[in-house]
Design a protein that fits this description.
CATH architecture of one domain: 3-Layer(bba) Sandwich
CATH superfamily of one domain: FAD/NAD(P)-binding domain
Largest sheet: 8 strands, mixed
């Protein structure tokens, strides 16, 4: 069983491994599992864990952080034996998606699993559900050491790389994988430049029960000045809200009660799901939104994955899916390398970066373009974007291509 190593016990010690992964989220954990199952010795460096919460015997509340995982994520997690370990009773398949425009004559665009010849377009999974399954897999996975500590220095050379901890310990390896989020320490140590632009929006996330059944449909409304509202299906008559709201509106929403937010939603969403009521216990979070585009996904003996490699607007729900696709590609690239090339070989890492370039660039361009287009409050643009939604809805070949790309198939 893998138990976290207290950093104090390895002070001033050297730990040799094949790959050091820096990060503590689902992408870092998935990469650790995949690389270990491929036969590599992996050290997962995580921040010191907070004190464990008191044991609660009642049913867990619904997590306000959820992900719309596509087929790429499903396939990867299934291959690592993680998908089957998820609590299936808390997963909702997305059977259809309806996108609504704004204005007097709003356009609309609809997708459904039947038209895509699949059982589901995606699956809505709570952050807690996903991480609990990954943590359970990590505890029993061979070839994985979990070290709790804080990194203070990174070095890369011809013979290998190393991460020095603030207690003096050293993790020596052949490859460092940065999976430490949008404010990545690993990326900063590599002097990788980036393009950064705040959207001046926050994603306000919470959960509601709905009066009318959602039938597995995900709904999205582009509302112009009030941002982008998405209601994602949860099991039963429940939905998860992701409201990409301008900063001023987000501050107002966070100051109001969830019952007051539900009244606002009833107007914006035209009563599509009937009355909305906050789930108990009431929980809400707001997350700042920005575009972060690093100039490279690799550096000498370093590969970036997940938000360390790209941060996009959540309007398409694909930030996490891009990260899982990074993991899948890194596994494939390392597995296909020539026998004489090491894990941190410059050409091997360049292949990984090239393989991910187009997919990442397309998703960045699409989400950023849509955020700009639907954020503009000009009547000619409003008319044009609604006409565009209606036209796209009548072009089945293009719709199928868009669905296939979004599903990761």
């Amino acid at each position: 069983m893998n138990t976290p190593t207290n950093s104090l016990s390895i002070a001033a010690a050297r730990r040799d491994t094949d790959i050091c992964i820096v990060g503590n989220g689902a992408i870092a954990k998935t990469a650790a599992l995949g690389l270990a199952q491929a036969g590599h010795r992996v050290t997962l460096l995580t921040p010191p864990a907070p004190a464990p919460a008191a044991h609660v015997t009642t049913e867990q509340p619904w997590d306000v952080r959820v992900y719309a995982l596509n087929h790429t994520a499903h396939t990867l997690l299934s291959s690592l034996k993680v998908w089957g370990a998820l609590d299936a009773s808390r997963i909702a398949p997305v059977e259809s998606m309806v996108v609504n425009g704004d204005g007097q004559q709003p356009g609309d665009l609809a997708f459904d699993a039947f038209g895509a010849h699949v059982g589901a377009l995606a699956w809505i999974v709570e952050d807690r559900n996903l991480n609990q399954a990954l943590d359970a897999a990590l505890r029993f996975a061979p070839h994985i050491d979990i070290v709790q500590g804080r990194a203070s220095a990174l070095a890369a050379g011809v013979d290998g790389a190393s991460v020095t901890l603030d207690d003096g310990g050293v993790i020596a390896c052949q490859l460092i994988v940065g999976a430490d989020g949008g404010q990545s320490w690993v990326r900063g140590q590599c002097d990788i430049g980036l393009d950064y632009r705040p959207y001046h929006q926050k994603a306000v996330v919470t959960n509601f029960s709905c009066e009318k059944p959602h039938h597995g449909a995900a709904f999205q409304w582009f509302t112009g000045q009030e941002g982008i509202v998405a209601l994602l299906p949860l099991p039963g008559n429940r939905v998860s809200l992701v409201w990409s709201a301008p900063d001023a509106l987000a501050a107002t929403l966070m100051s109001e009660t969830l019952s007051e937010m539900a009244v606002r939603l009833a107007v914006l969403c035209e009563g599509r799901l009937g009355a909305l009521r906050p789930l108990v216990p009431e929980m809400v979070r707001d997350l700042p939104l920005s575009l972060i585009r690093p100039h490279s996904m690799v550096a000498p003996r370093v590969a970036l994955i997940g938000d360390a490699a790209h941060v996009i607007h959540p309007l398409a729900g694909h930030g996490m899916n891009l990260g899982f696709a990074d993991v899948a590609q890194l596994l494939a690239t390392l597995g296909a390398r020539e026998a004489h090339r090491g894990l941190g070989d410059e050409r091997v890492l360049a292949r990984y970066a090239r393989a991910r370039h187009e997919d990442v660039l397309l998703m960045q361009a699409a989400t950023d373009g849509l955020a700009r287009l639907f954020g503009a409050d000009l009547e000619p643009l409003r008319v044009a974007r609604n006409l565009g939604l209606n036209l796209l809805n009548k072009l089945p070949v293009l719709k199928r291509r868009l669905m296939s790309h979004a599903m990761g198939k």
